Amino acid sequence: MEVCIKVNGRMITEQIEPDLLLIDFLRRHGCFSVKRGCETANCGLCTVLMDEIPVLSCSVLAARADGHKVETLEGLQKEAEDFIGFIAAQGADQCGFCNPGFVMNTIALLRENLEPTDDEIRAYLAGNLCRCSGYEGQLRGIRNYLNSREKKGDIDGTQEI
Amino acid sequence: MEHRKYNAINRSVPKKDARQLLLGKPVYVDDITGNALVVKLLRSPHANAMILEINSSAARKVPGVVDIYTWEDVPQQRFAIAGQTYPEPSPYDRLILDRHVRFAGDVVAIVAAEDEKAALKAMKLIKVKYEVLDAILDFHESKDSKILVHPEKDWFPPVDVGGDAGRNLVASETGGDGDIDAVMADCEEVLDHAYHMKSFNQAMMETFRTYTGFDRYGRLHVISSTQIVFHVRRILSRALGIPKSRIRVEKPRIGGGFGAKQTAVCEVYPAFVTLKTGRPAKLIFTRKESQIAGSPRHEMEVRVRLGAGKDGHIRGLDLYTLSNTGAYGEHGPTTVGLSGHKSIPLYTGGLEAFRFGFDVVYTNTMAAGAYRGYGATQGIFALESAVNELAEKLGIDPTVIREKNMLREGMKMPAYYGETANACALDRCMARCRELFHWDEKYPVREMGDGKVRAAGVAMAMQGSCISNVDVGSATVKLADDGTFNLIIGAADMGTGCDTILAQMVAECMDCSVDDVAVFGADTDASPYDSGSYASSTTYITGKAVELACAQLKTKLCAIAAGMLGCSPEEMCFEDGRVRRINTDQSVSLAEISVKEQVANDIAAVATASHSSPVSPPPYMVGMVEIELDRYTGVVKILDYVAVVDCGIAINPALARIQTEGGIVQGIGHTLFENITYDRTGRPIESGFMQYKIPTRLDMGHLRVEFENSYEPTGPFGAKSIGEIVINTPAPAIAHAIYRATGVWHRELPITPEKILMSMSEKDAEL
Amino acid sequence: MVTIQKYIRAKSLEEAYEQNQKRSSCIIGGMLWIKMQSRRIPTVIDLCDLGLDKIEENEEEFSIGAMVSLRQLELHEGLNEYTHGAVRNAVKDIVGVQFRNLATAGGSIWGRFGFSDVLTIFLVMDTYVELFHGGVIPLSEFVNRKQDRDILVRIIVKKTAGCFAYLSVRNQSTDFPVLACAAACVEGEYRLTVGARPARAMLLLDEEKLLHGGLDPDSVKAFARWASNRIPTGSNLRGSAEYRTRLVRVLTERLLKKLKEEQEWKSV
Q1: pLDDT in tens, B397-418
Q2: Which residue of B205, B227, B501, B515 is the best one to mutate when testing the A interface, meaning the one whose CB has the most A CBs within 10 A?
Q3: Which ipTM value was assigned to this complex?
Q4: Which partner for C180 in B9, B141, B766, C196 could form a disulfide, CB atoms 3.0-4.6 Å apart?
Q5: B302 DSSP β-pair partners
Q6: Residues B415 and B177: beta-carbon distance below 8 Å
Q7: Model-level pTM?
Q8: Residue that terminates a domain, selected from C142, C158, C174
Q9: Which residues of chain B make contact with A37, given a CB cutoff of 8 A?
């Protein structure tokens, strides 16, 4: 069957098999940031925005996305640039395999909630698993980013601890 | 010795690959390897069985299937897949495909197809006839059982570690110091308990995967998510029967390891397909495969007999570990030793005698491997719990009892290969942790109403830094032609950031910025030999090699500069990133030297150093946890976890902090949520993240980490290790807090809400 | 991994219903459950273009389309005001936001899964399901029916005046519940639903009139004890029957205490 999906602003029309998953469709089209970490919709690594809503691309049929707009990290580099420096300053990127899903869902969180509390951040990102960082550093990074937006100043990324 | 002020050391620089990772760039195995045959593995549903017959004729007819391999197609030379220095202490007990399958999940056949759908369809059509055998599922019953996991005649151990496949034994030993029986007989208090830590899965986010193809010279080219490129090359050479010189192994970015990838779990299968078909092949494990056929922690039961005086003086420790290595012996002989040797020395301060014995047995369950902590985790859960039990029994504050007995700097450690603790800030870790955690306020149990109770627990830990007299780390440092540097290593950055911290060391030695050091990692063709990233050796061993290589490079740079100034090398010195002629104002920049190096030059501006250490200086840490326990449901909430770590000095404090936080959360996971269980027939129940519950960010409360420095004379810049110790405190600390809240000691992990609730009497739990 | 041969994006409920009468067909909601199964589905029917992703509210009722996501339920102000946050509490621990953006109310209710928090909370309210062929029937009746080839179109919750509360116990914060419970006091009548027993949610009314005189420490204790004897529990990977029975008592007491707080707050 034929599908027509707008991926990162570019219309892609393709003949696909009906059971092709969105994650595989996206990776086929060069969106390697979308990662697979499980088969049970538990890990959040495959998070993309479909019509601006964060979803698990491993559980969406490409056929369901037909006629819809999908964004991956490849298409949100600028928005990601805004805060990833603060995550990097914590060293919380670690192996990086959870990073794209985490960054995508953080972008979704910050679009929805401009001033989230720590609890709200944790709850929103609960579906993004990470095995390396212990989560605390990711929270510190987001918190530092939000504080920097308030202060409207620069935070030195390389702090001596 | 005190640490001096550094320029690039003890600085929290972001990882060199941070932007690439956070922006989702394609840097992992499956992102950088293109068209390849899809390799899938058919797995045994039986815990112990002989394959009588495999009929793949229908499967071969599926369009897109290229070939299917069974036990009849593979070489008959047994090998081990453990990432260990050769000759490995691991028994050679594997074949690529064996007629005898020894755990539910063991590989039965290899399918190679053009696409995944064809491979999966073919797998369903392969008909296998098994003779199902009785299985050993309980490791208590394994030793000297009539059921043998490895009855084959060609099982053999390259190194004698006390194994005997005829008894299901992989390793066995007893040792000690002092007269333990006399000491115990003389002790006023003797505790005797067994502590059971189950098998746990590293659950790194990127599952096992390997790509194999041919390079431009027709050699087997392996791109794998591995921690051990050199060991993989050797393992494949033996398994496939081809020379090592015909194999190249490299690793790109890896999505985590924690020891899982210190075993060649999946490499041999696509390699076999590539050799047979002449085509590139790629095997990506599903999460389910990583879960049921990975390389998890060894299930261990550690029996602790602890002898002490009524005043809390711990005089004797007698440990016996029974370790379950599963169906194959990979890391069985090596993990077990740490359960005693990296726990008992914590109490050197008061210890008069100790004994430590162990047996490592085969069972028909998942083959265990290397997982952060590597046996120390299991031993420390046991010993720290036993010490807490003693403290509670005697009514002595558990931090005070530790201060009374703990290892202190300068002490010789009979239980740790006779090494001396030259750098030990354990006492300061304990004092600082007490302070940060507000131990005096949080230790007393506090009722919060509605059945909720807050309580605290404590544990201390140690690990090692490298495997002494075994691990080799190397580094090549090269002057690049703009006066910057290339660092080439064989150690594998699996996300920890070792690429970055080793670059920081070059920056410190060569007076340059970290950005001026480009790192190239882990390729058997280009990297100098490195055992690999395990045993917490990268900072300590590879780091020292970096230091040594830089020193050698400076000598060469001075020689080149001397030639440029027409004087002798002895007149030159390396200072502030330039080479200066002593007692003159003549100097040469590195950029100028690099230009000279390319014209009429016979001194290469490159140096390689290898390093090993005769000692393995332990890092130390103390962890304290505050929980809130609901006495009516058994649910435990982690509120606050404070850890103070002595890793010598943190080369990169941000990364060291994240290591600690990550390890603590993994520890919380195996204490409260994670579990590996089997049904009656030996089939694994937890088959992915839906059943195997690793902590989410709602499960870990608030973490706080600080460092107490010590100076390790044999380490680079006085540093020791940090990679593994960080997972060792949560289990005993949380079990302690649960005791404080409920009055019940839990000696088996995980400690679930049900176990907690049901262990309290009905009356206690009544509203 | 599920394999599918044909994908139909239904242009009308009639078309969807007609296609669904074939044994080879299956309606997909969030598809989360279906995707994990290793089965072959010849034809899937997608209702995503039928405008069923809206929650409509008027004075009498909430009308929740079958394709409304769990996240929409979580965030809906009206629904959470009516239930004092009980609907949000029922779904907020389910895996993650991304998951809840996909899982549908219709899928949860149609599936009548044992583990379902969604079924547990909806069963305690005055809930009806609108079936394409079978019409509007109470959820309490639907919950025990066998799956057939009808289509769940809407979930209707009558805004009968009442207090609601939801609690669950989980071994890990976003895991399936070990036990899921909801309680309500609707027009003076007390109700309890218990799900993840591990069997699906069942509704228990105050048959012995233990709460007839209102909620006080003794009546609450008595009802909780009675409920724990009445609700059958079983054992599975996540918990034993015995543990669940103890939890029924604990959660029932805590839920009733929450209802009491709500009642007091409302009467102020």
Answers
A1: 999 999 999 999 999 999 999 9
A2: B205
A3: 0.96
A4: C196
A5: B195, B321
A6: yes
A7: 0.97
A8: C158
A9: 205-207, 287, 689
